[in-house]
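One such given next:
>
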Amino acid sequence: QVQLVESGGGSVQAGGSLRLSCAASGYGFRNLYMGWFRQAPGKDREGIAAISTTSSSKIYADSVKGRFTVSRDNVNNTVYLQMDSLKPEDTAMYYCAGGSTWSSQPFRPNLYSYWGQGAQVTVSS
């Protein structure tokens, strides 16, 4: 069993930065591929970033490419999402997720077995 807990959400003005953390407890974090998803009110869940077990592969959605950076620390069982140049359209609930299968299309939610509770990010103009 793996449990994921997000932290670091909050409110920021457009152009600002936030860093989300996702701390994992339980067995097997190093064997999990990790993803970040977000969902805004009235919109579908959107996959925005994914990272392989050793950080050798990273994939970003076009909507965040060049602005967001995903990383992980396998010693401390934590995955991060650094968010820079934030825009109002980035406002959403952000979720981290873990799964056992790496895919060239990593933004399908059913690839992931473990989910955090979510962290709210609000970007004002």
Summary: The first strand starts at residue 2 and ends at 7. The chain is about 0% helix and 50% strand. The CA atoms of residues 22 and 92 lie 16 Å apart. The two ends are 41 Å apart (CA to CA).
